[in-house]
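ingest -> validate -> predict -> emit
validate: passed (alphabet ok, no gaps, 253 aa)
predict: started
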Amino acid sequence: MIVGTVYLVTNVVNGKIYVGKTEACAIEERLRQHIAWAPYYDTHFAHALCKYGAKSFVVEPIVTANSSKKLNELEEYWILKTGSYKPEIGYNMTMGGDGVIPTEETRKKMSKSRCAIMTPEFRKKISESLCGKKRSPFSPETCRKMSEGQRGRVHPPETRRKISESLRGKALSLEHCRKISEGQCGKKRRPFSQEHRRKISEGQRGKTLSPEHCRKISEGHRGKTLSPEHVQAIRDGWARRRERLATLKENAA
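emit:
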């Protein structure tokens, strides 16, 4: 049983070709659809139909297939065989089949067009249009996939610098701080590695807290009661520090 046909459309003016497939209708009807939809599509073939007119194109069957899978494979085969994906030969912008893989030439054009569109002014307009809008929360499944996708990812130094500069001077609202606090409530962080501790230590070395910062820390801790475990951990930390200082003094002597 024949499911569909792979067809070839030829521009009789310049000899360029287009390879396509159809399942729902005859190839002549499929060409008429291409012609009717051409003004609304931004493809090489659509542009050519508008430029040269319907009378400049002829369609002919290449091969039939008895399954959709085979039809896709045959379309891919004939696009490669005829070279219709090459701009100098044909109008195909993909390698065919249901996968619709863009050719290298198409990818370059898509990238160039996106770069031209995303100007600073355009980005600003997008930002202003989204300002104040609240997106719907992600589902747990989406959150899990996003988490797995980011796991193990390390930003390059240049990206880190840009993130740092974009966040510099920004103050979190009380509502934002509250949500972060609620999100972290009950979570127990993993212990820092020795390398992580060393980096934190080096990053804090030589820093002096401003009087305003000290005041805010003091106010933030005011009225809080430490748990017995927390108190014991602080005492153990000071004990270790005294031991290290004693060791340093003995070595210096």
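The two ends are 97 Å apart (CA to CA).
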